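Sanity check

After download, print the first record. It should look like this:
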Amino acid sequence: MGDIRIIGGQWKRSKLPVPDLPGLRPTPDRIRETLFNWLGQTLTGWRVLDAFAGSGGLGFEAASRDAAEVVLIEREAALVDGLRESQRRLKATNLTIHRANALNWMTACAARFDLIFLDPPFADDLFERALAAAVPLLAEGGLIYLESPHEIAPPAGFTAWRQGRAGAVHYQLLRREDNPAP
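Expected structure tokens:
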């Protein structure tokens, strides 16, 4: 088992465990740092969804930066247990963790989010389906962050506002075409 560190906010330098599970690929520090430079260092008042939470790096990073509410969705029991243990250890009261299939959960959800993280397992090829499920959950002015092994075309009405590549990971921040840049 390894770990990753939260890079900013109230839990800066806190470790999150990363179990050695097939397909688990936490977002590297370098990409998280770039992403949160794009978003701004604080997410005060934001509602955030981490739909394929895995190790929880993205969701805990958002919670550490004062997001009002962060919802983590993960289907693997061992990962959910680890997320809940990290939540207890950090006393992360702005986090809610659900053990569920992210696509099913998003389809049934009525809530709206300012930021949605989509980092599905690369081998499952869920990128377009995850985007389709996330779009109705996006609040006005909201953003979707997507990680994939290659560039994915944004859904209709969206543009890749910021994007990059690090090793085998392509990452992009999507916004509605009529949204001004934050």
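If your output differs, re-run the checksum step. Summary of this record's structure: Strands lie at 2-5, 15-18, 47-50, 69-74, 95-99, 113-118, 138-148, 158-166, 169-176.
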